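User: Sequence in, structure out. Go.
Assistant: Echoing your sequence, followed by the structure tokens.
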Amino acid sequence: MRFAVVLALAVFAAGQSDAAARLKDITDVQGVRDNQLVGYGLVIGLAATGDSMRNSPFTEQSARSMLQRMGVGVPQGTIRSRNIAAVVVTATLPAFIGTGARIDVTVSSLGDASSLAGGTLVLTPLVAADGKAYAVAQGPIAVSGFASSGNAESLTQGVPTSGRIPNGALIERELIADFNSAPELRLLVRNPDFKTATAVADAINGFARKRFGLAIATAQDFRSVAVKRPDKISASQLMADIGELAVEPDAPARIVIDEKSGTIVIGASVKVSPVAVTHGNLTVRVTEAPTVSQPQPLSKGETTIEPSTTIQAKQDGGRFAVLEGTSLEALVGGLNRIGLKPPGIIAILQAIKTAGALQADLVVQ
């Protein structure tokens, strides 16, 4: 397994910092959000790769219900076709989308179908958390994966039981929201921090004093900033103007460790108090080499196997190093002087945190 160490460095230039970002890239407007849609439907036209009615009885029930609504009476247990599959359809309803617009949908098999390739989704209502249908989905499914099998071998690439329908859902109901008449907007900081929220408010007020002659933003807490809309401008125009303002967000002191892949991400604000660290690798090798004991000819002895075990112990490393992370470069340099690989660095960082010398949050995934 290959391991990677990712170091997050902050580069500061004279004047305005390169770490400055646009306000609209670090904040969200409260209430301006997407909504999740979900629906249950049937996919038809499969080439004998659909659900088996015995293992997926709900597929047969759904097919009979659909045919009955179309005026076709089907007795129970008479549908044995393998070209039908029950699916769950999911989509995202964007904010401010209007009736008649189209969105993409994702179709996923619910039963034991082996592939949805070549199938067509039958008209499926998509409902939101309030139980109301906001869109209907229908159309041919685009599947990137495939499955092929023979008598002695099978090959599967990708996920053939899931696909997408580009522009497959038609919006039938829209969320009514009078955004432009809102007297106050609330901006939510994506990475909550008091300094970042204050910097957002200061940037907005600096723009507002020049444009309107008054301050309009107030940092409510470390997560939200309240912005009062002046009477001379709409909310949409106000967000378009302040969205381009440059703000330098403050990053928390944090180390993120992914033990599965061995990835370590160290933030630029991480500091380590003076601490002495040593790390040694102890390797114990146990070798089993049993020997066979053969009796002499014409004797009454029996052939036996005698165990033979060899144990070797080897310990590498064990050097002391003093870490004093006054900067990220000093911390990384101290870890590199010990000559550790990422698994050892992970153990060292966890031990330093336990000792109270790591001035940062340690997130282990």
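User: And one key feature?
Assistant: The longest strand covers residues 271-288.
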